[in-house]
Design brief:
This protein has 206 residues and is mostly helical. Helices cover 49% and strands 10% of the residues.
Length: 206
């Protein structure tokens, strides 16, 4: 069975940028709901329940048709949110360093250019979805967006940074001001966590 991961910080730890009430509902209701529905959809497929969520999302076309949409939606929601919680931390923000900074500079010219392009991808997404910084099999970085709970894993990419732009992620505090939410979110991005995600790609079974 898949389980809801605990938040790596208290509900109010990301204030004032992400408010505690939104985080409580986002993690305890929305993410928990994806986990419950994923487990329910796969209860007759114990072999699939035993597999890592990454593996399921990377092989959607190979899954039984009766569970494919549920894994895409609820499994994607579980994976996407699990990544989202981990790449944020209190007293964070700023700019990345080391190999991550070099990779961003190589792909986008410099950090401000990357930040501008990523923010534009998040702000420009119509409806609900995510903005991503992902790496391909060679380690090259790219920015993309996806609708609903679709994951870059299903298109051969590995996300190392993701921003949830569903309204449930920000509406209590920012209402319809998505751009303000995006701008505030940069203050809680944990670049060491993102760097660890990039470094993990070079390890077996990443």
């Amino acid at each position: 069975m898949f389980t809801l991961p605990s938040l790596p910080y208290s509900l109010d730890a990301l204030e004032p940028h992400l408010d505690a009430r939104t985080l409580e509902l986002h993690h305890g209701q929305h993410h928990a709901g994806y986990v419950a529905k994923l487990n329910s959809a796969l209860e007759k497929h114990p072999d699939l329940l035993a597999k890592p969520i990454k593996e399921l999302l990377r092989s959607l076309s190979e899954l039984p048709e009766e569970v494919r949409v549920a894994v895409r939606n609820h499994g994607g929601g579980h994976f996407n949110h699990s990544l989202f919680w981990k790449i944020m931390a209190p007293d964070s923000g700023g700019e990345p360093e080391g190999d991550l900074a070099s990779a961003i500079a190589s792909s986008f010219g410099d950090f401000p250019s990357f930040q501008e392009k990523f923010s534009a991808a998040a702000a420009g997404l119509f409806g609900s979805g995510w903005a991503w910084l992902s790496a391909d099999s060679s380690g090259a970085l790219s920015i993309s967006s996806s609708s609903n709970q679709d994951s870059p894993l299903s298109t051969g990419q590995t996300p190392i940074l993701g921003l949830d732009v569903w309204e449930h992620a920000y509406y209590l505090k920012y209402q319809n001001r998505r751009a303000d939410y995006i701008s505030a979110w940069w203050n809680v991005v944990s670049w060491p966590a993102v760097a660890a995600n990039l470094a993990a790609l070079h390890k077996p079974n990443a």
